[in-house]
Amino acid sequence: MEGGYSRVVEDVHPQLLDLIPNERNWFVKKDNNNNIEGDEKKLELRLGPPGVEDWSLSNAHKNYKSPQKAAQKRSAPAPVVGWPPVRSFRKNIASSSSKPAPAKKEKMVDSCQKGFFVKINMIGVPIGRKVDLNAYDSYEKLFVAVDQLFRGLLAAQNDTSGGRVNGNHEHDKAITGLLHGNGEYSLVYEDNEGDRMLVGDVPWHMFVSSVKRLRVIKSSEISNTCCLGSRQENIKL
Amino acid sequence: MACSFPEEVLEHVFSFLTSQKDRNAVSVVCKSWYEMERWCRKRIFVGNCYSVNPRIMIRRFPEVKSVELKGKPHFADFNLVPEGWGGFVYPWIVEIARGYPWLEEIRLKRMVVTDECLEMISKSFKNFKVLVLSSCEGFSTDGLAAIVANCRNLRVLDLRECEVEELSGHWLSHFPDSFTSLESLNMACLLSEVSFSALERLVARSPNLKTLRLNRTVPLEKLSTLLQRAPQLVDFGTGAYSAEIRPDVYSSLADAFSGCKNLKSLSGFWDVTPAYLPAICSVCSLLTSLNLSYATTQSPDLTKIVGQCYNLQRLVVLDYIEDTGLNTISISCKDLRELVVFPSDPFVADADVLLTEQGLVSVSQGCPKLQSVLYFCRQMSNSALISISKNRPNLTCFRLCIIEPRAPDYVTLEPLDVGFGSVVENCKQLTRLSMSGLLTDRVFEYIGTHAKNLDMLSIAFAGDSDLGLHHVLSGCDSLRKLEIRDCPFGDKALLANASKLERMRSLWMSSCFVSFGACKLLGQKMPGLNVEVIDERENISSIPECTPVEKVYIYRTVSGQRFDIPDYVRIMGKDKDGVYDLS
């Protein structure tokens, strides 16, 4: 902090209350034994393994004139009153109920199966994602999710300026048309018989029970395939 | 120029002003507005019960229908305020019973409420409707029985996280058979069993019941019975959510839930049997609030449920949700406003839950309406904090607790100053901040410079010197509540900013370097402050004045010092003459 410093008056003194006429001159911290000037030095003192500082009162009393010294101590972790700040009724949650075994699949669990993650790749994006199909109950929601998953990644691929603000994808081009098959992209899937199928023909629950993985491809690929009559060579999957 | 508006018109206009802040502003415009406003104020909020005397309140506002009081400082939640410190509501109840016979609502937080208080409430207010006790203690189920038996017009009985002496579960049976006005019952914090048939009958004859939060003793098998009686419920809290897995129990529970078309909020879920969680699936898309913070079940089970809650605005969950679960939430729960993640095992250094800073970053990225965060984790980095702040400049409440005190940025091993600095710089509407991890005076410089809307700040194990505290007290223009523990802050910053303390509600400092002498000086020089030194050591009088106190709690007050203090509390710098006489 710039500016000069006023002499620190060690003893508590009534004048202290009026000591600071001009805020700009508020003194740089200066204690008796530890002259810490500059942030670097402060940081230096801080590097090292974290540990619980034992601020027991005896320490505080002993080190009252040089708080910096006390702060340098690194002791082994010890229980600290009131830390972490959780209420007492939250303290024994993990120990009072045993950490549960993995959930068993039960017959009565009908519409909500175990988390059903399938891979989903998108053309032009080298890294795939996974979606939990049990998180959705309709194609519409799946398409929204797919859009969210890949929109940012796709835009990042296409953006050459390199100056993207992290995280704001609202202005990226949406991946639309998956639902009606009239957009730039289409969603296809690989079913349990190994065939590649267009998403959307069968009822949702039937789709979920047969889908093995998903792919977002360019809609043009589908028409190319039809024209050429070949099943797989032209679709890079 | 005379005021040409008739009083009735002004009064009507004032009736639209509900916020206390607005009403306070209106009351200082001129004398006639002050008079008019005070006669039509119906609700009063007193943030510190020791800041004002109840007689002053009653004298100024004669027509109040609703009183809300807060007692102990916030750190009392974490056992930092010793037993018997204060916050006794009894003197308030005595005065209010005399001054407001038509009072309808009482809301208390962190206060000591005795059975005698509850009995007095139940007998003094003929039209009593609402009792909300948050984090209160000192009463038993007998006191509840009195309320329940005598308050014929009771609508709301809401016990939030109270410590109740449980003499029996019979209190619930004291609701008269003719009593049908119940709208909200929250007994989640009670440990003893109530008569289920009494509960069922109560629910059956309460057509306006919107909120029902059961306690842990109500078994899962009985939930469907209650839900069928109250399909109009908006807010439901289960009991222990575990049972032997039986298809008939499951299907009747699932059916009962699906009958609740207005359900917006679910909580409870102690001891979850994961296979029963999907029974709530049919209402997931209705939920705006979900509290799974007692559900000790693995991430996939949690995620599968939360991922279906597309309209969720508030989520409270344990760290079992893990980063993967939070990632799903960031995709599925686009309306999320508030996220709370509690630690399942707060006292171990390494937990085997895969919850890191990444989970919070994902949610900050995917949930555009996220405003409020309380997050416990074991590692954090400056870059994550910067990302979060840039993703979510609309944050209003950011509370981060890194379990290990003074934990640095786990990647660079630097302090987290820059990260938190980014939070206060980018999130210009931030009103509440709790920090943790390794922090130097620099972070306080950032806070003092940028956090102009900050109302409440919590600091622990941070800072290097008085400079840190000075930055906060001199820079944070809106600061009203400051709580500090285990920081090397001492007399200088406190005394140099003494006048600031009168513009704040309160300041708590424990295990810092504030001396007895400074406290005494502050108490002497500032008549508008009570400087309470809380120190349980023996032979305090022989300790030198330069010794740091264990704890000091400073608050502004117009009612002078209090006389209900235990022996380990000293109100510094005041003698008997410092008391305001109100008789």
Protein architecture, described:
The complex is a heterodimer of chains A (237) and B (583). Chain A is of the alpha+beta class and 237 residues long. Chain A has seven helices and five strands; from the N terminus they run H-H-H-H-E-E-H-E-E-H-E-H. Chain A has helices at 39-46, 57-62, 67-72, 93-96, 139-158, 204-210, 219-228; strands spanning 117-122, 125-132, 185-191, 196-198, 211-218. Chain A has a five-stranded mixed sheet. Mean pLDDT of chain A is 60; it is low at 1-76, 98-113, 160-167 and 227-237. By secondary structure, chain B is of the alpha/beta class. Chain B has a 21-stranded mixed sheet, covered by helices on one side. A two-stranded parallel ribbon of chain B has the order 5-7. In chain B, helix 14 (357-366) packs parallel to helix 15 and helix 17 runs parallel beside helix 18. The radius of gyration of chain B is 25 Å and the shape is globular. The two termini of chain B are 37 Å apart. Classes of the chains: A alpha+beta (237), B alpha/beta (583). Chains A and B meet through helix 1, helix 2, helix 3, helix 4 and helix 5 of A and helix 10, helix 12, helix 13, helix 14 and helix 15 of B.
